[in-house]
Every structure is written in structure tokens, then in C-alpha cells.
Design a protein that fits this description.
The chain is α+β, with helices and mostly antiparallel strands. The protein has two domains: 216 residues, Ribosomal Protein S5, domain 2; 84 residues, Alpha-Beta Plaits (2-Layer Sandwich), CATH 3.30.70.3170. The protein has seven helices and 15 strands. Strands 3, 4, 5, 6, 7, 8, 9, 14 and 15 form a nine-stranded mixed sheet that branches. The radius of gyration is 22 Å and the shape is globular. The relative contact order is 0.15.
Amino acid sequence: MTGADPSGSRVRPGAGVTASRTAGCGGTTADVPGPAPVTADRVGGDLARRATADPLYRLVAYALEAAHGRPPAAVWSAPYAFRLGSPGLVAAAGWPTAAAAAPRTDGLVRLSSLGHPADSCDLPLTLSGPPPVAPAWATRPYAVLRALARAGFGRGGTDLHVQGSLTGAAGLATAEPADCAVALAVADVHTGAGEPPDREQLARLLAGAVPDGDDGLRRAVLFARSGRALLLSAEPRRRQRYVAFDPAASGARLVLVAVRGEATDRSRELARAVACARRAGALSAWPPGQRPGRSVLVLLPEARLAAVRAAVAEDFRDRGRPVPRFLNIAVAGAARREE
């Protein structure tokens, strides 16, 4: 079977080439066609050529076609997510990760990302045993695809392209939106036409496939509403509950401040940035995730935005430190299929 070897090399089947797969315990081999046909009612490939579509989604659709030779059957966007000061509240940010997927029938997974242009890979989709050797970035989406296949989604394989609008340097968790975008795109391709993927089922699958992730952030990605915060419950099957959280509607701004430089300095530099922001008029600040990171979310009156940015930048510049990044955050809705 085509796959990745320990050296990282890979072989891609070309158009019209069949891949061999060992079948059953008898060790017999059968030739099966590679890509599954993309039916007319599931086509997402024209997204790449639609001038009115969001540039990120056009790019992801085009990148999958360029990397794997055929258009996507589905393109999904999933927002980055963050926690509020209260541990039981989460919300989605208006910055998306996107995933484009097309089904296969030969048990092969082909993964690519513009964030890792030299590390595309072709891997055999196995349901048990050690996973195949893969580039570091691909191990997580492969784990998601494996969990989906065990649940009956995409056992024949998948062509997949993933791309985020932010990097880890921005300070928001990148794994959870990517997990959800991949799961939704692949589940959508393998769900009956007109039937949306079961998000509760996918949340449970992701919790098992990548247990090191933040389940609260994943629920925000899957169930968020624009201008609302999601109230987490100890009983995930309960009806979702929301509270109003729309800084812009009340004349405020929510800004992500991410420090640069060595990891050993981040805690001290973040504390310094928060102190400067508060002196310049910020109302509150808190980390966007459960783990210490490089960023804080700052809530401030809109009229004080320029003053806060200037105060933080001046303090860091005067000390010869890299000026932190500022990123405006809108409270957005949940993951969705891009038509």
C-alpha cells in the first residue's frame, strides 16, 4: 500500500492509477480505484473560482485540487475559540480555520497544508495498531480521521487540505478549530445529502481521538453563536445555554495581545503588558485558554483602544523588547459549511 516511510518520502498515485490493498486474513490483494467520484450535489470545487467567496475558502479549495488533482466535495470553516474569565464560559472568535475534503475508496489518506508545504503525506488508513510514520503536523488530523473511520465515516480514505487564518504566534489555540474543521468536512462528505453532521457525536469522537485537547474550546467551535458566550455544562447532552457577550454592541473592544520572544520571558512580559493596558484604560484581562501561553484577552472601551496600544508599544519599545501583537476579536458563530 502507498504510504509514508521512516525517511518521510511518499508516493502519490497518479490519475488513473489504482492502489493495491491487502484484504482480510487470507492476505489476498485487490486493486481498487483511488478517488471516489465527487457527485454534482456535493461539489465544492467551484468555490476556488467564485470571485465572491472568502479568499481563505477559495484558497483551501484550490489548494486541495492542486495538491491532489480533484476538487473538494466539502469545505468547512471552524472558528478559533477562547475562554472568558469564568471557567464555564467559552466563545468563538471571528478568525477561521478551513478544511477541504474529498472521499477516496482505496484506504489512503492524503494530507496537505499550506502551513507545511514541504510535508504533505500519503498514509494508509488503519483502524488499529500503531499509526504510520507521518510528519509531526499530520499526526493530529490522522488521529481524527482514524476515529471517524472507526465510527463509519471515511473508511475508504480521504484527500484533505487544512489551513488556518492564524498561526500559533497569534496566541489562540490552533488545534481545536482544526480538529473540528477536519471532523465536520469528512463527516459531511460521508453523511447523506441534506443531512448535517451530528455535532454532538463529533464532539464525543474528538474527545476520544485527541484527549489532550480542550473540550470546552471544541464545544465553542461546534456550538457558538455570534454575540453570545456558551455556558459549559457538566452534562454535554443538555440543551446549549448562552449568555450575551457582544463587546462591540456596548461600545467596547475585545483585543488579543500576544507577546513575542523567548518562552521563559512570556509570563513576565504578559504581566507587564496587562499592567500597561490597565493604566491606559483597559477594563479587564484574562488568558484565552486553560494553559499558560503567549497571549491575554483585553476588554477595553473602544475610545481607549489607541491609547492602550500606544502605551503597551511604548513600554516594550523603551525596554528594547519586541512590541506585542494586537488582534481584534469579534464574537462569532459556530463552524459551518462554506457553499
